[in-house]
């Protein structure tokens, strides 16, 4: 049921509309930094956050992938991986095989405050990835996951497991789980009003008239 719900939201809503509704509700800092952009796979990504916290290391110690493997193997259907390396430029945090494993477990995509690799392969399998860039360098001995399933700061926004993630070419917004129902309802209502305003503008109404009638632009 969640996937049907996410697909519906992807077909009806836009990041800008959700951001506007969050603003009106007093949540004015829920859009991730513009440097995290679409890099591979489908262009609209909606799902529930599954978080990973990673950072740099200066030398290889122990099993470099242990917590990252654990985090991916425990992903659930409908989840979006939200990970941060604090935009480390040293290496790629994510690539084709991680994408394949995540996709097989029902994950819907990745939002990464950091670098990816294997963009052509990831694009071929259709796994949506939003990241700050790409670099072919492996993470071994350079990056390590230190925790997963915890609140993370990604793209300047605090993201908690279970939050609603909406990502598209315009950008990425995160809706805290505790206000999701009211925000989604308000966003759907705003889209309906915008459709009406668009029709009126196309028929020749002025912006001033449309604004006065609907207070939506």
Task: Please give a structural write-up.
There is one protein chain. This protein is of the alpha/beta class and 217 residues long. The chain folds into 2 domains: 176 residues, Glucose Oxidase, domain 1 (3-Layer(bba) Sandwich); 31 residues, no CATH class. 35% of the residues lie in helices and 27% in strands. The protein contains 7 helices and 13 strands. Strands 1, 2, 3, 5, 7, 9, 12 and 13 form an 8-stranded mixed β-sheet that branches. A 3-stranded parallel β-sheet has the order 4-6-8. Strands 10-11 form a two-stranded antiparallel ribbon. The chain is elongated.
Could you write a compact summary of the structure shown?
This protein has 217 residues and is of the alpha/beta class.
What is the strand content? Answer: 25-35%
* CATH fold-level name of the largest domain: Glucose Oxidase, domain 1
Q: Can you tell me the overall shape?
A: elongated
Helix content: 25-40%
User: How would you classify the helix and strand content by structural class?
Assistant: alpha/beta
Tally of separate domains = 2
Low-confidence stretches: none
**Which homologous superfamily in CATH is the superfamily of the largest domain?**
Ribonuclease E inhibitor RraA/RraA-like
- Oligomeric state, counting identical vs distinct chains: single chain
User: What's the CATH class label of the largest domain?
Assistant: Alpha Beta
Named at the architecture level, the CATH assignment of the largest domain is 3-Layer(bba) Sandwich
Largest sheet: 8 strands, mixed
Rg, rounded, reads 19 Å
Instruction: Please write the string of helix (H) and strand (E) elements.
Output: HHEEHEEHEEHEEEEEEEHH
Span between N and C termini?
32 Å
> How many extended strands?
13
């Amino acid at each position: 049921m969640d996937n049907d719900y996410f697909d519906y939201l992807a077909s009806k809503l836009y990041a800008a509309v959700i951001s506007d509704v969050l603003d009106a509700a007093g949540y004015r800092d829920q859009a991730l930094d513009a440097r995290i952009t679409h890099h591979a796979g489908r262009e609209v990504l909606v799902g529930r956050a599954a978080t990973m916290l990673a950072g740099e290391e200066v030398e290889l110690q122990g099993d470099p992938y242990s917590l990252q493997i654990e985090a991916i193997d425990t992903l659930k259907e409908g989840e979006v991986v939200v990970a941060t390396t604090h935009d480390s430029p040293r290496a790629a945090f994510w690539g084709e095989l991680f994408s394949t494993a995540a996709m097989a477990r029902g994950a819907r995509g990745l939002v990464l405050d950091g670098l990816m690799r294997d963009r052509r392969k990831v694009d071929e399998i259709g796994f949506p990835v939003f990241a700050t860039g790409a670099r072919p360098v492996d993470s071994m001995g350079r990056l390590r996951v230190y925790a997963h399933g915890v609140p993370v700061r990604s793209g300047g926004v605090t993201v908690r497991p279970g939050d609603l993630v909406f990502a598209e070419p315009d950008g990425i917004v995160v809706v805290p789980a505790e206000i999701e129902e009211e925000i989604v309802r308000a966003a759907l209502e705003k889209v309906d009003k915008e459709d009406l305003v668009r029709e009126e503008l196309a028929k020749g109404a002025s912006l001033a008239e449309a604004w006065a009638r609907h207070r939506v632009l």
